[in-house]
Amino acid sequence: MTEQHKEESMLEKISDKLHGRGGGSSSSSDSDDERSSATAAVKAKIYRLFGREKPVHSVLGGGKPADLFLWRNKRISGGVLAGATAIWLLFEVMDYHLLTLLCHCLILTLAILFLWSNATTFINKSPPNIPEVKIPEDLAVNVARSLRYEMNRGFATLREIGQGHDLKKFLIVIVVVTIALQCFHISATFTIAFLYAVFMVLYTVPVLYEKHEDKVDAFGEKAMVELKKYYAIFDEKCLSKIPKGPSKDKKQH
């Protein structure tokens, strides 16, 4: 009898513990749900710059470009930054030109291949395998024919415009030439320095904002409140005093 009582008491203790743990787990799950709902409500109330609702990675389009700008892979991002900096140094600081750079690269490549081909006889290694490049005759003839056809069409159009036969074509040519001239002037102002500055902004601002977005968003919220306050004062003192014209209803009567 005593052994049976002991077994029953042990079973009761085990069942009590199991029920206690189950109640604890249910209560913990309830608390987790409450915490998650509370955090979701807090996140919904947080001000985001420019009304942003998605993460920075999604705003930048996602994928590899966003990974590049946000430094997800530091080696690749660092390599791209080093390449862009080298290009900026070559063309801006050292005042290199594209044609000069191409010529120097060609000279260096030919010198390396020439020395390598002659050094193979002394070091007992195979010479470099340089592929043979040939332009097919059919391709060259087709390209020349298409260029000749387009150039003849252009000359015929200019001749027709010069003789005063088509006003519409004359206006189209004037507009196209004007747009091309403006594009040339705009492209002349976009120097390597400007492009490098834009690249550095895109390469630093998103990653810094992602790291300190809470602080930046809080500062942006304060700035927006101040701007709205100053705009209300300006509206009250200046804009509201500007006389408005008669409405359409009054004009009809």
From TrEMBL:
Its main location: endoplasmic reticulum. The chain crosses the membrane at residues 75-91, 97-116, 170-203. Residues 1-36 are annotated as: Disordered. It is a multi-pass membrane protein. Residues 65-252 form the Reticulon domain. Keywords: Endoplasmic reticulum, Membrane, Transmembrane, Transmembrane helix. Coiled coil: none annotated. PANTHER family: RETICULON, RETICULON-LIKE PROTEIN. One of its GO terms (biological process) is response to bacterium. InterPro entries: Reticulon, Reticulon-like. One of its GO terms (cellular component) is endoplasmic reticulum membrane. It comes from the Eukaryota. This is Reticulon-like protein. It is found in: Endoplasmic reticulum membrane. Residues 1-19 have a biased composition (Basic and acidic residues).
